[in-house]
Write a structure and sequence with these properties.
heterodimer; A: Cytochrome-c3 Hydrogenase, chain B; 5-stranded antiparallel sheet; 4-stranded mixed sheet; globular; B: 232 residues; alpha+beta; Ubiquitin-like (UB roll); Alpha-Beta Plaits; 5-stranded mixed sheet; 9 strands
Chain lengths: 472, 232
């Protein structure tokens, strides 16, 4: 008899989702689905608003990564104004994107995921959270919290607000960086760098044996991310590169023409669409974005410390890694790269110039803004009328790109832990951990601290609940 | 000089006849919240925010003249409750979303909501469907954020003398229009002076190109102009 297992809600991710595992008549895993059960409707209610409001409006999509939406939106609007923004505005936007990457990655690693593997997958859920981490590893937890706080404070000092700073505007940014704030960031970078280097060392000592990192599945896919013209890691501009599981370049494309290579499929059981690489079709065109996607897509880092880490990572993985768990590893390497680039930007005297905004009217009827959010490539695409009123928009958010891959991840993990109808202890944690590795951002809500009830239902083909497993 | 004696909140005040309750209160440092009132423009009592209690009757302070022996209460529990309800109705009638509004932080309606202690809107929102008119080269009107206070209509007619702005429709359907309800960019009478934008208390009339929370108005400009012209 076919059975279904539900995990609802999935905890310690940004938003609300649930998981269903389908078993075949032999009791083995037939399929698994990750459902996003929220509907937001931004692509509808932004229509009719002005393009100048779009950075502030679309920022409200998320309270974790509002900076990403503000930057992608401002870039799409730059394209509509058809201006080249002042170089200082460009440098400042890069700086804020890096600060965002540091705080978001630190949140994902220290608050949401580290409790799983530093405290143990099977330890008591009541303590398997950031509070438990503080109790067990106070020094590490304190450093992680300070690292995130540094990123948040840097965003605040740049944009005047930690969350939803409406600072990037069409044509540039609306507030220059003061010498005082520049000095504040510069002074705190060494501590941030030390923290991430220590965390990387700890991570490698705990998971140096790559077998340990197979726990969340290992499967090949395409990887996508922005790279510089010369193939180096990039987060704000450049070309959109897709590589295969071996790291061979499949395609390099102008990001503004993303629609030529990426299409979106819909499924009736989730509100989250499924983007795929169009030439390979659906669902074979599955690709992954985010930290692992980016470090697999690039040839190298342009900063020395991150490059050394990348070389070590690749030597250990035999090239590109398909391990879901390695998202955490990649996240740490990216924090290091971000801190290195922040130091370079802050050392550049152009960073405090007051020339930060280009003024222009509506010079194009369509604009695309693409950049790398912490969770992966973020695309804002607007169409406007001659007065700058939004007629249509398309948003492809980072979590969406990984939708196929997240579904694949939970299927792989379910296959390891469910055999012949027997559900092993700890499967719930691993499946959730598999989703959590991608750090999906399903909405603005955070469940970083606290516990929500987790329930597994085994449902037969007639829809009757055969058994219920619960943490409570 | 003729004087009248009144009481505001129990305080004896001597003022000139022909003054409004609002004038008398302001002269004596007594705060009464307002919205449609703007120094330099004719008062019309459109928004009702300045209501006060005159011996059990609620009247608008901006359009009611003082009279000998008048006893006025500006801050009773009932006055505060009515005032808060009036502000809630203004919010419920439009689509006022501060989080992405260009005027956030510089909006008189937002300040008013804070001043009257509005914590939430108890009335169902009307969610009207309005169209943003961005056809003017420099300005735009977002009727979602218009409270129909009529300051733009008065500034345009009384100070600039262009009479581009006027009202159309009645009751809850009333809205401000340019010329004979053409898009602003096609309004031939508009001089492009921008006084309507400066006097608008919300994010309804704004400079084109202003982004989230960037819009700051200069409503005092009409008082200066009116003053100088009166000496003309």
């Amino acid at each position: 008899m076919e059975r279904q297992i539900h995990i609802e809600p999935v905890t310690r991710i940004e938003g609300h989702g649930k998981i269903t595992v389908f078993l075949d008549s032999a009791g083995d895993v037939r399929d698994a689905q990750f459902h996003v059960t929220e509907l937001r409707g931004f692509e509808q209610f932004c229509v009719g608003r002005t393009m100048w409001e779009m950075p502030g409006l679309t920022a409200r999509i998320c309270g974790i990564c509002p900076v990403s939406h503000i930057l992608a939106s401002a870039k799409a609007c730059d394209a509509i104004l058809a201006v080249r923004i002042p170089e200082t505005a460009q440098l400042l936007r890069r700086l804020m994107n890096l600060a965002q990457l540091v705080q978001s990655h630190a949140l994902s690693f220290f608050y949401l995921s580290a409790p799983d593997f530093l405290l143990g997958w099977d330890c008591d859920p009541a303590t398997r959270n950031v509070v438990g981490l503080i109790a067990a590893r106070p020094d590490l937890a304190r450093k992680g919290i300070r690292l995130r706080a540094f990123g948040q404070e840097a965003i605040d000092r740049l944009g005047g607000k930690r969350i939803h700073p409406a600072w990037a505007v069409p044509g540039g940014v609306n507030q220059a960086l003061s010498q005082e704030d520049r000095a504040w960031m510069t002074e705190r970078l060494p501590e941030a760098r030390t923290t991430i280097q220590e965390t990387l060392a700890l991570f490698k000592s705990a998971f140096g044996d790559t077998k340990e990192r197979d726990v969340l599945g290992d499967y090949p896919s395409l990887y996508m991310g922005l790279v510089r013209q010369d193939g180096a890691w990039e987060h704000y501009e450049g070309v959109l590169r897709i590589v295969d599981a071996k790291g061979r370049v499949v395609r390099e494309h102008n990001p503004a023409q993303y629609a030529e290579i990426i299409q979106e499929a819909s499924e009736p059981w989730t509100y989250l669409k499924f983007p795929y690489y169009q030439p390979m079709g659906y669902p074979e065109g599955m690709y992954r974005v985010g930290p692992l996607g980016r470090i697999n897509a690039c040839d190298r880092f342009d900063t020395p410390l991150a490059q050394a880490e990348l070389e070590e990572f690749r030597a250990q993985s035999g090239g590109r890694s398909g391990r879901v768990f390695d998202y955490h590893y990649a996240r740490l390497i990216e924090i290091l790269a971000a801190i290195e680039e922040m130091a370079e930007l802050l050392a550049d005297d152009r960073i405090t110039s007051p020339a930060i905004r280009a003024e222009a009217g509506v010079n194009a009827r369509e604009g695309v803004g693409v950049h790398e959010a912490p969770r992966g490539t973020l695309i804002h695409h607007y169409w406007v009328d001659q007065n700058g009123i939004i007629e249509k928009l398309n948003l492809i958010v980072s979590t969406g790109h990984n939708n196929l891959a997240m579904n694949r991840a939970i299927r792989e993990i379910a296959k390891i832990y469910i055999k012949k109808g027997k559900v092993s202890e700890g499967i719930l944690n691993r499946i959730e951990g598999g989703i959590r590795a991608y750090d999906p951002c399903l909405s603005c809500s955070v469940h970083a601290v606290g516990r929500m009830p987790l329930r597994v239902e085994i449902v037969n083909a007639q829809g009757e609940v055969e058994a219920t497993l619960s943490r409570d | 000089m003729e004087r009248v004696t009144i009481k505001i909140d129990g305080r004896g005040i001597a003022t000139s006849p022909g003054r409004t309750i609002l004038d008398a209160a302001e002269e004596n440092g007594i705060r009464i919240p307002t919205l449609c009132h703007l120094k330099g423009l004719t008062d019309v009592g459109a928004c009702r925010v300045c209501i006060v209690d005159v011996r059990g009757q609620f009247v608008t302070a901006c359009t009611t003249n003082v009279a000998e022996g008048m006893e006025i209460l500006t801050d009773t529990e009932a006055v505060r409750a009515h005032r808060r309800m009036i502000v809630e109705l203004l919010f419920a009638e439009g689509n006022h979303v501060c989080s992405f509004c260009v005027s956030s932080g510089g909006c008189e309606l937002q300040d008013l909501a804070c001043e009257v202690g509005m914590q939430s809107v108890r009335i169902p929102y009307a969610f009207p469907r309005n169209r943003v008119d961005a056809s003017h080269p420099r300005f735009l009107i977002d009727r979602d954020r218009c409270v129909v206070c009529g300051r733009c209509v008065r500034a345009c007619g009384e100070i600039e003398g262009a009479r581009t702005w006027d009202f159309a429709e009645r009751g809850s359907a009333v809205r401000v229009i340019t010329d004979l309800d053409v898009d602003w960019g096609q309004a031939e009478t508009c001089t492009g002076c921008g006084k309507c934008v400066d006097v608008c208390p919300t994010g309804a009339l704004v400079l084109k190109g202003a982004s989230n929370a960037e819009m700051r108005k200069k409503p005092d400009v009409v008082a200066h102009l009116a003053e100088r012209r009166s000496h003309g």
